[in-house]
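OP here, attaching both records as promised.
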Amino acid sequence: KQWYQRRVRDYGGWLSSTQYKTYTLALKACSSNTKCTGVTKIGTGKFKLNSGSTVSANSKYTLYPRGGLSDSKYYFSYANTVFSAHAPYAMSGKVDGKTYTTRTAALDACVQATKCLGFTQSSNKKFTLNSSKTKTKTAGNVAYVKHGRAMVSNGYMWQEFSGTALKGTATTTTYKTFALAAKACASNSACKGVTYVSAKKFQLNSSKTRVTTKGKICWVKRGKTAAYKSFYWTQNTGYKGQEYVSTTSYSSLAAAQVKCLATAACGGVTKASSKYYLNNYHTLASSSGTSVYIKGGEKIEQVTVYLSYKSYTWKMRSPWQFAAKLTTKKYTSRNAALKACASNAKCMGISKAGSKEYYLGKGTAYKPGKGMKIFIKYGAMSTYGGYSWTYKSGYTMSKGYLTTTAYTTKLRLLLPDKGNSKCTGVILKGGKYYLGKGDSFKASKGLIAWKQTSAIKAINDYYWTVYA
């Protein structure tokens, strides 16, 4: 809420005889009482709540009239997803009818629930998932809106939007990759985001305003974000925590962050002058000259390995899950699910949702899944020369040919001691074989490509993939 300091005698009467020792405690009590019209300081360490609206001048007293609800909004990253927090607001529509006791639990559930568009933190610090982004101003509440994919690069968080482009150009220079464009944008204060224009062409933009444009992708530059102690922290200037966990201050951001991670009620850190304070939960207040560091989600450590099963190479990635299920049937073992997927042309892989819980996946869209894994049907598999090879018809290697030398047989090429250390695959074109380069496939009509996946050993009738 907004409070205005004025010298007065009182403010039309006291709400009660209760006195509060600090300004913060009095304001908190007034905010939760609809009959309270303000707070008056009557002496050192003495504050009382008011009930009227008549102001009388008195130089010994200081009045803080209660104004309207003040807004705050900030962005942060959690599980590769952008969320924005809006206070004091509540969202509508229920997703699952459950009540969550921590913000982390609500975030995890919302990221994994397709119908969840955000969640609301009530005044009693409980959380419910919402199916609508409609917000209503509600004292004591915080609305968390779920947005699109989040990327952290070059010290900033980037919010991705498909099918849209940003307005304005920050520079006439274009870049061949997003990584190069993001690096340039991060060091350019006039740059507000990046737009993918066409193949190998990324444009820096001077506006965050988006325009629907088929085939385009844009990334809006949000707050400064960095990982510390395996968590992401997003900086927002012009804000402070509405309440602090305690009056204790810290001399460095790192010290405050360590303490915040060990404190369940801490939602971030406020920097005021040269000191740092722990924010009590997640509600912020506007404040000039201060900055907050919002505690986001854990930095996702992505793991990718390959395995061979049922004549296919499977690419295992964690922590991810397929965005859509092919069927609702549950399999109790990984191999049973892989076998079913291998025999179904529409199956693109499987998701491990829990202990003895596997589902067939469809499509190529994935979403973060805490503690989950996906096994992507990567391509048909063959083994030769101590390696597994994934091959695809109608594809070439992502970076084309390593050399122009043509061979009449691929077998000699596949032998490790005869090969080239820079070679990552083999391409068949016009009845001849060429060494390929690149770590993935690229569609190319009429060609066939073999990608060297991993070292493999056959022991006791099983294939064992080797990772050094």
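Record two, same layout:
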Amino acid sequence: KFKGGSLRYWPKDKKKAGVAKPPVDKLLKSDCKVMNIKVNTTVFDGNRAHEVESFEGERYSVVFFTAKGYQKLSPANVKVMKGLGYPWPSPSAMTALKKVAFGKDA
């Protein structure tokens, strides 16, 4: 059990062509979305700025992600991965997740 530990997430912190992302310490707290991950699972783009607020006690995070270019794996290797028990996202599943993670930017 723990107290605190909400997730701060900056959904507008996305890379733009030819423009460097601002340093994390220059992002405004007023621009972040605060999520209580103790009571709700959440999906977000881990490439955008995020941090965990201070907390007391023990807590664990389980992180799932899909590597860029996963769809380039050969069908034979996809079959091996699935045979080993790895979930393999379909294009429609990835589209749905992107809508959740990116909102209107999907």
